[in-house]
Amino acid sequence: MISIVIPSYNEEKGIKRTLTEVKKVMSDSGIDHEIIVVDDGSTDKTAEIVKNEKMIRLIQHPYNKGYGSALKTGTKNAKGDWVIYIDADVQHDPEDILKLIEHTKDYDMVVGARTKKSKISLLRRLGKIFLGSIANYLSGMKIPDLNSGFRAIRRDIVMEFMRILPDSFSFTTTITLTCVKSGYSIKYIPIETTEGVGTSKIRPFRDGFNFILMILRTITLFDPLKVFLPISIILFIIGSLYGLYYGIYEFNIPDGAILLIISSILIFFFGLLADQISSLRREIR
Question: In this predicted structure, what is the pLDDT of residue 203?
Answer without folding.
Answer: 62
